[in-house]
């Protein structure tokens, strides 16, 4: 028989309410840039755009075509905190997800950016990054695709790698280009804000078998996990302090 506590926990999860919500201070975005050819996407084109219930991100390709952009730098679209940085296989390859806070209409809002099929990951879970900081390099998703960046912007910050558990439409996703173009320069009222960090759905254990590019992809067996998530304290105070000092110096 299920205990009362167990039932209450289940109800809380159903409502999407976390009973142990951790928060950490992150930099407020001072604007959003394009993730390749920074800051304006120069030298790149959108090979495929965002379509609700279809392709939930944008595919960015080098103008040289083919694999000419393999290994080219991928940048964080804005200041933020890395909440996912590892190989997810299943048609994704190396993935980085970054949480951003921004101000709009007098409110603080959050958005997650996702960078998929990376050749290399240059950031770690819990790391603070600045707008335009390199987070990795353009890859092929482990040889599955011609080299390109799969880029998503999520207005629902619970998605993580559990896209199957959420509507695949405008209630959850932004068109990345539209979102960025509308917010190139922002003037936040504060340098930092407290952001929730444990929001990703508990459903992440069930991996998607439909790749972000739409095709069916057989799951690649995972090798033994090199480092457990949580081995680094998310949003370490020292990182943030160092970055604030650097920001002060550069002014
Ligand atoms: Zn894609």
Description of the molecule:
- This protein is of the alpha+beta class and 251 residues long.
- The chain has a single domain (20-249), classed as Glucose Permease (Domain IIA) (Distorted Sandwich), CATH 2.70.70.10.
- It is 12% helix and 28% strand.
- The protein contains three helices and 13 strands, in the order αββββββββββββαβα.
- Strands 2, 3, 5, 6, 7, 9, 11 and 12 form an eight-stranded antiparallel β-sheet that branches.
- β5 (80-87) and β6 form a beta hairpin.
- The longest helix has 13 residues, at 237-249.
- The radius of gyration is 18 Å and the shape is globular.
- Residues 7-19 and 224-234 have low confidence and may be disordered.
- Zinc ion binds at residues 48, 55, 57, 59, 150, 212-213.
What's the short story on this structure?
The protein has 251 residues and is of the alpha+beta class. The chain has three helices and 13 strands.
- Helix amount: 10-25%
> How large is the count of helical segments?
3
Tally of structural domains:
1
The biggest sheet, with number of strands, parallel, antiparallel or mixed sense and barrel status, is: 8 strands, antiparallel
CATH H level: which superfamily? Answer: Glucose Permease (Domain IIA)
> How far apart are the termini?
62 Å
DSSP strand count? 13
The share of residues in extended strands comes to 25-35%
> Stretches where pLDDT falls below 50 for ≥5 residues?
7-19, 224-234
The bound ligands are: zinc ion
Summed over residues and divided by their number, the pLDDT gives a mean of 85
Q: Which class best fits the helix and strand makeup?
A: alpha+beta
CATH class: Mainly Beta
**General shape:** globular
Series of H and E elements: HEEEEEEEEEEEEHEH
The CATH topology label is Glucose Permease (Domain IIA)
Seen as an oligomer or otherwise, the chain set is single chain
CATH architecture: Distorted Sandwich
Radius of gyration: 18 Å
